[in-house]
Amino acid sequence: MEQILYEVRDRVAVITLNRPEAANAQTMELLDDLDAAWTRAAADDEVRVIVLKANGKHFSAGHDLKGGGPAPEKLTLEYIYNIEARRYLEYTLRWRNVPKPSIAAVQGKCIAGGLMLCWPCDLIVAAENAQFSDPVVHMGIGGVEYHGHTWELGPRKAKEILFTGRPVTAEEAEKVGMVNRVVPLDDLDTAAMDLAGQIAQMHPFALRQAKRAVNQTLDVQGFYAAIQSVFDIHETGHGNALSESGLPVLMQLTGMKDKVKGQ
């Protein structure tokens, strides 16, 4: 079964996470296929808007903690850093800067790594049952790799969510501006596609320039530099896990399985 589905409807590219049996947890293959879908939509002149959605009860349970591939002969921080810099940082920043408006349609749980799928989108439409959380402080890590927390929630709310690990409801997310619209679950797909259709009527060059203007304003305020620097802070958590008995958790977070030799 394909982990990512792709179709174009009325100038809207619809990218669908398709691991409902695993709550759309992210394997390395899923992230690679997702990046390919974003790239395809960006290159298609027919596409004016991108919608990211998910099949099943939950948008995404984050990284696949059951492990998706064998560990190397010797696990080093350099190895982990290179994997995560590509799939968790380079991909998300590329999706954020695709020169077309994007909308995430979120239902159910959106946990940790799930945030790095919806936060790069320009708009978020959430079902009433959506819950957003980043509980990885419990695992000894200071937050998910793509640190949009401060920008999406504000500094005090971001600290509360990180310190406690509690979920943010769709209603609360809308109040702080992280979510654009909250709709009944049964209306989620229709609401996202209606919004995409409205945007698709606008001039594509003007849409690109409007998106660029907002993103560059955030970058001037420090967004891009902060994302880069906080990613390095995140990696120190992995370094700490390498030096402690938390290695199994580290392997889960990086999508690895099997015993690591040479440690």
UniProtKB/TrEMBL annotation:
This is Enoyl-CoA hydratase. It comes from the Bacteria. Gene3D superfamilies: 2-enoyl-CoA Hydratase, Chain A, domain 1. Belongs to the enoyl-CoA hydratase/isomerase family. InterPro entries: ClpP/crotonase-like_dom_sf, Enoyl-CoA_hydra/iso. The lineage of its organism: Bacteria, Bacillati, Actinomycetota, Actinomycetes, Streptosporangiales. CDD domains: crotonase-like (cd06558). One of its GO terms (molecular function) is catalytic activity. Pfam families: ECH_1 (PF00378).
